[in-house]
């Protein structure tokens, strides 16, 4: 019952209260447990239930509790645990706050339970946080569910929470809010209002358009030709389009918090794939930052301020090395500057994103404007040619060999370059220079020139080869490879160009990364992303055609613009000025680098916070506002490695690998979810198909190996290592991913294919059901039994670990779960791969029977039961232990299962203590399927038993030919491919010894004595009742009715005493059917008849004990004892020093009367042996000589 309200006089002692939001956690209690209350409410006092939560917001004053509160209010209020709501400013508890009782959820009027005039019945489990006189919502409409409101909330509250769900954002709003908090500014949280255009379309455009468009696309077109360049761009764009379709399906299958592709892949494919691909995506984004920085440095040093170069070289072979050093120095400086910008203020990066996007759009529009203008007024950018070879204009003033100065012909600077710096016209010049004329051609002939016909075909070059125009005639002489020619700086091929171009189509995840800022992410992400990809694909494909139709081929193949006065080639086409492209591309590239340095640390932080890769845990922390400081430092370090490579053409294929792998798994996730048809796969985006996802996955894989097969293998190895590392560490995340669904489908398919009947002998392997016993603290009593099971894992079979808890399942469900967790932890420590099942049953034997019958599924059922020997059964007065053991043996035999009983299990070795020598002795007395041969072979596969030798003993009778038996056994083991020593032990007939006779007699006397000592249930009740009456009469002087005690109370006390006495005196079984069932009235008084009956019973007992001294043992028992004694003598003689002894386990007797004798026989059979494994086959062959 709940007693939360003090008397009305105590309710308004304080005038000023500070309102705080609290939550009452009330533990109901019985009315009897409250001091000072009499039993006036029997209908309520019997109620005691689980905890009920009051989740209303209450008024709580901050003053201390009044000293004048009644004892009743103090005692009852202490029953409530007051927990502070997260929204409140202070944490309150019953000792330092006083509830405003006029505002509490249960009014004082309703809590006057002792008032006989109380009309309203307040139920014990009323879960109404705002219950008032006129509010009967709960007790009328939802009264049936009031006890389940904690775990099963109302639909209205659930819908309210779901409708107001806020995504975890990583967009601009989050960064600004975080920095505003650190600066002391508290701004109200804004609801995400970004639409498709501003939230997805434009960010995707900004991230897709990048440095490759301005610096390398013209070179790709000139090298590969229009047709192959078109194919390259089309393949890359198709890859991203198909990936966007798959991504749209995943992104619209539920609410997607920010996290982009990492979140989608990890939640769709599981923590292993999620971590592996997430790290690959992180590395790709980090190397993208390095690529953008290198692109910005190339624009800066080549086209904006060439004089800023620190390293110079006049030698053409050393000039490229000098440029790489310049890239490293300036790239490191740029990286440091950008890292500082990101560290100091991320919001400035987000604010300038619009400026960077404007630069990209203006630059692209300038290209289209220049292409259109070139159709009627092409710009003047002459390209100087020597024969058909392209000359660099960096050191040439006039494109001619000689020039007229005052009617005098004088050599030009070009003459001096090819004629050993001579100014004489009769000087000896280069052979090719002497035989070919110097001409110039228009670098940009224009859209209407028809130059596209020459640019259709590829012109791949080797490193150092001269860029030539095949259509110009020249004298075919070699000449010197002068540095004034435009030379190829790298060897080009179709595959190389694919790897270099692909980064220009990445960035399609920008919309999904901003999902927290979107008003309707499930609508905006598909539309905005696909439209952005279509737009950029159109721009790329149209630029391929326009570049091929407007620009001369030799200018296209001139990567750094040497033939056009050092200008950016695409800049020469643009209108109104090449500087539009140069400046625009520089700022857009810097912006893209900043965006990468902003996004990559947050991606790493998200992976670290998921806690699936332990060594990355440190990178989940950062500044107070959540900024990933440590992740930013690691990102800067990795980006520096990319900058030290210093070549844009070498860095681009690296990040292509990582992005392609990321996109591959996005397509795989969509295809997998679609094919599995999981119930939760219900995307709003309908225009997807598993074939499209599979095609996208295939294109990604093909592009990886086309661009660089060794980079592809390295990326896969890295991802595979991360996958196995997460798997090895034990990924405990359960995200409802598709790989789990795939495993489920594969398991179902495999189980349906497994044979329901027994497997073929060649396929037989021990499928273990290990029965463990738990103590009162739910700890495993014999963990070495599980260790032994782990040493049999060479069989590669199923392992089920089961245990039984006695009780009612409804009451002990929580304890069963705790026991299951304990067993699972023990299985992990012993490295046992298997399943755990704890059964709650009224009796242990029933629970074990249920386990043996119901464990497993389909063809994956256990065929072997492993259990321990009930040690100490002789000393124990409780017969339940050995009766449970024999019952388990009978159930196992009935189920036709094999049984392994480990005796002295505490002496079995642990996995950390392997034997360095010793023997595993097998005593093959009867054949029951070959288990005795197979088990030692499996044990020897484990490191603990590997150095032990197998010895097999068999028993020969007088009529057997022991020599032939030994030969046959050796041949049999040879065919079984088992290496073992063979020995045949001859057992001759001998007379029964006096020891055997005496041992049998002692066994039967003990059994008879225990049977006579066991009383029927009725007799025990009668005697205990008499003892209780005598004790009461002695204690209270013969008065049964004492003052202050009712007759009902005394009867209840007698019942309690009798039950305790029964528990102390009972030595029988826990099975009800083994006691007499007839009922007889229990005498509660001491009468003369009762006294005479007890005298008769005592006389019978004395006569029974006299008979024990005169009894003779049963002949069959003597024979069995003789066999046990003789076998034990032989086994101890041969195997007393063996590390393990395996022998056949005899079956239990058909008559249960001989169960205790059966236990004695087994005890005698195994006496004097340190480790024994009793083996009882299941009746089927488990080993064969055939292949």
UniProtKB/TrEMBL annotation:
Membrane topology: Multi-pass membrane protein
SLC12A transporter C-terminal domain sequence ranges: 783-900, 917-1021, 1073-1187
Biological process according to GO: cell volume homeostasis; chemical synaptic transmission; chloride ion homeostasis; potassium ion homeostasis; potassium ion import across plasma membrane
Annotated keywords: Cell membrane, Chloride, Glycoprotein, Ion transport, Membrane, Phosphoprotein, Potassium, Potassium transport, Symport, Transmembrane, Transmembrane helix, Transport
Membrane-spanning parts: 195-217, 229-252, 300-317, 329-346, 352-371, 485-505, 525-551, 630-648, 654-675, 687-704
Cleavable signal peptide: none
Reactions catalysed, as given in the entry: K(+)(in) + chloride(in) = K(+)(out) + chloride(out)
Any one GO molecular function term: potassium:chloride symporter activity
Biased composition (Low complexity): 37-54
Protein's UniProt keywords contain Phosphoprotein: yes
Region Disordered, annotated ranges: 33-70
Pfam families the record matches: AA_permease, SLC12
Protein's cellular compartments: Cell membrane
The keyword Iron-sulfur is annotated on this UniProt entry: no
Domain (Amino acid permease/ SLC12A): residue spans on this chain: 200-372, 491-769
Domain of life: Eukaryota
A GO CC term assigned to this protein in UniProt: plasma membrane
Family: Belongs to the SLC12A transporter family. K/Cl co-transporter subfamily.
NCBIfam families (UniProt xref): 2a30
The protein's name in its UniProt record: Solute carrier family 12 member 6 isoform X1
UniProt source species: Alligator sinensis
């Amino acid at each position: 019952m709940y007693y939360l309200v003090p008397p009305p006089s105590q309710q308004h002692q304080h005038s000023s209260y500070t309102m705080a939001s609290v939550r009452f956690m009330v533990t109901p209690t019985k009315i009897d447990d409250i001091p000072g209350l009499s039993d006036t409410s029997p209908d309520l006092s019997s109620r005691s239930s689980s905890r009920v939560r009051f989740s209303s917001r209450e008024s709580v004053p901050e003053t201390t509790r009044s000293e004048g509160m009644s004892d009743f209010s103090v005692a009852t209020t202490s029953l409530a645990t007051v927990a502070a709501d997260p929204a409140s400013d202070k944490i309150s508890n019953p000792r330092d706050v006083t509830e405003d009782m006029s505002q509490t959820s249960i009014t004082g009027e309703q809590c006057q339970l002792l008032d006989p005039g109380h009309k309203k019945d307040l139920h014990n489990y009323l879960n109404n946080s705002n219950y008032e006189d006129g509010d009967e919502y709960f007790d009328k409409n939802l009264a049936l569910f009031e006890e389940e409101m904690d775990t099963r909330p109302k639909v209205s509250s659930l819908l309210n929470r779901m409708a107001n769900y806020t995504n975890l954002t990583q967009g601009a709003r989050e960064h600004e809010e975080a920095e505003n908090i650190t600066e002391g500014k508290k701004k109200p949280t804004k609801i995400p209002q970004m639409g498709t255009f501003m939230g997805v379309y434009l960010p995707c455009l900004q991230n897709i358009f990048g440095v490759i468009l301005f610096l390398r696309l013209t070179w790709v077109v000139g090298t590969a030709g229009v047709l192959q360049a078109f194919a390259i761009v089309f393949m890359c764009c198709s890859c991203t389009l198909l990936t966007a379709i798959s991504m749209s399906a995943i992104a619209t299958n539920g609410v997607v918090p920010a996290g982009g592709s990492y979140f989608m892949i990890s939640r769709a494919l599981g923590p292993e794939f999620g971590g592996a691909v997430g790290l690959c995506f992180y590395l790709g984004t980090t190397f993208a930052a390095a690529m953008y920085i290198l692109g910005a440095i190339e624009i800066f040093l080549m086209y904006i301020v060439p004089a800023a170069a620190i390293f110079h070289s006049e030698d053409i072979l050393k000039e490229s090395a000098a440029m790489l050093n310049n890239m490293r120095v300036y790239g490191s400086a740029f990286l440091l500057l950008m890292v500082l910008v990101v560290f100091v203020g991320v919001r400035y990066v987000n604010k300038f994103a619009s400026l960077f996007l404007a630069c990209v759009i203006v630059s692209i529009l300038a290209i289209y404007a220049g292409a259109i203008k070139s159709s009627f007024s092409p710009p003047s950018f002459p390209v100087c040619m020597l024969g058909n070879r392209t000359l660099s204009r960096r050191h040439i003033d006039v494109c001619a060999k000689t020039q007229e100065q005052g009617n005098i012909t004088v050599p030009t600077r070009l003459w001096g370059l090819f004629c050993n710096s001579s100014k004489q016209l009769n000087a000896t010049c280069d052979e090719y220079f002497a035989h070919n004329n110097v001409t110039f051609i228009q670098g940009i002939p224009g859209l209407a020139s028809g130059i596209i016909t020459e640019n259709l075909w590829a012109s791949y070059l080797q490193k150092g080869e001269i860029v030539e125009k095949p259509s110009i005639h020249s004298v075919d002489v070699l000449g010197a490879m002068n540095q004034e020619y435009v030379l190829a700086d790298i060897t080009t091929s179709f595959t190389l160009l694919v790897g270099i171009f692909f980064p220009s189509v990445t960035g399609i995840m920008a919309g999904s990364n901003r999902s927290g800022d979107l008003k309707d992410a499930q609508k905006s992400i598909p539309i905005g992303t696909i439209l952005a990809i279509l737009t950029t694909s159109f721009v790329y494909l149209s630029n391929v055609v326009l570049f091929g139709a407007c620009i001369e081929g030799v200018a296209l193949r001139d990567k750094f613009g040497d033939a056009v006065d050092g200008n950016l080639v695409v800049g020469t086409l643009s209108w109104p000025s090449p500087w539009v492209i140069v400046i625009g591309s520089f700022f857009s590239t810097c912006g893209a680098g900043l965006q990468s340095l902003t996004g990559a640390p947050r991606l790493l932080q998200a992976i670290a916070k998921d806690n699936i890769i332990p060594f990355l845990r440190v990178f989940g922390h950062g500044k107070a506002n959540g900024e990933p400081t440590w992740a930013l430092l690691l990102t800067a370090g990795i980006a520096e490695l990319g900058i030290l490579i210093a070549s844009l053409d070498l860095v681009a294929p690296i990040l292509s690998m990582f992005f392609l792998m990321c996109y591959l798994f996005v397509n795989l996730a969509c295809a997998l979810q679609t094919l599995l048809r999981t119930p939760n796969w219900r995307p709003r985006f309908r225009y997807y198909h598993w074939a499209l996802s599979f095609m996208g996955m295939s294109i990604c894989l093909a592009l990886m190996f086309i661009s660089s097969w060794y980079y592809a293998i390295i990326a896969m190895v890295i991802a595979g290592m991360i996958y196995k590392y997460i798997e090895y560490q034990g990924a405990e995340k359960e995200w409802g991913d598709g790989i789990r669904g795939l495993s489920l489908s594969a398991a179902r398919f495999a189980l349906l294919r497994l044979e329901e009947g027994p497997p073929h002998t060649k396929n037989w392997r021990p499928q273990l059901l290990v029965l463990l016993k738990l103590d009162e603290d739910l700890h495993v009593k014999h963990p070495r039994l599980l260790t032994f099971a782990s040493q049999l894992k060479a069989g590669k079979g199923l392992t089920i670990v089961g245990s039984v808890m006695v009780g009612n399942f409804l009451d002990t469900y929580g304890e069963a779960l705790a026991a299951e967790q304990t067993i699972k932890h023990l299985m992990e420590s012993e490295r046992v791969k298997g399943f755990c099942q704890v059964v709650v049953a009224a009796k242990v034997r029933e629970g074990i029977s249920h386990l043996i019958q119901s464990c497993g599924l389909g063809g994956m059922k256990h065929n072997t039961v492993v259990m321990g020997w009930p040690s100490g059964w002789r000393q124990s007065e409780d017969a339940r232990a050995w009766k449970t053991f024999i019952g388990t043996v009978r159930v196992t035999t009935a189920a036709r299962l094999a049984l392994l009983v480990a005796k002295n299990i505490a002496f079995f070795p642990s996995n950390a203590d392997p034997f360095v020598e010793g023997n595993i002795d097998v005593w093959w007395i009867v054949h029951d399927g070959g288990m005795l041969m197979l088990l030692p072979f499996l044990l020897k596969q484990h490191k603990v038993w590997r150095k032990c030798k197998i010895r097999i003993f068999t028993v020969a009778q007088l009529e057997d030919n022991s020599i032939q038996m030994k030969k046959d056994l050796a041949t049999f083991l040879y065919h079984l491919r088992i290496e073992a020593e063979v020995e045949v032990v001859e057992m001759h007939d001998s007379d029964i010894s006096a020891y055997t006779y005496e041992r049998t007699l002692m066994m039967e006397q003990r059994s008879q004595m225990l049977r006579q000592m066991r009383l029927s249930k009725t007799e025990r009740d009668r005697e205990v009742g008499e003892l209780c009456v005598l004790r009461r009469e002695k204690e209270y002087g013969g008065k049964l009715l004492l003052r202050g005690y009712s007759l009902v109370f005394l009867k209840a006390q007698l019942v309690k005493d009798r039950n305790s006495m029964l528990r102390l005196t009972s030595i029988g079984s826990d099975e009800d059917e083994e006691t007499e069932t007839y009922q007889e009235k229990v005498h509660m008084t001491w009468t003369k008849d009762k006294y005479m009956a007890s005298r008769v019973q005592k006389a019978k007992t004395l006569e029974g004990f006299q008979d024990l001294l005169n009894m003779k043992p049963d002949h069959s028992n003597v024979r069995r004892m003789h066999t046990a004694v003789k076998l034990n003598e032989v086994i101890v003689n041969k195997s007393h020093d063996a590390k393990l002894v395996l022998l056949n386990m005899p079956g239990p007797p058909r008559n249960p009367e001989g169960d205790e004798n059966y236990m004695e026989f087994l005890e005698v059979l195994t006496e004097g042996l340190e480790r024994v494994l009793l083996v009882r086959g299941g009746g089927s062959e488990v080993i064969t000589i055939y292949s």
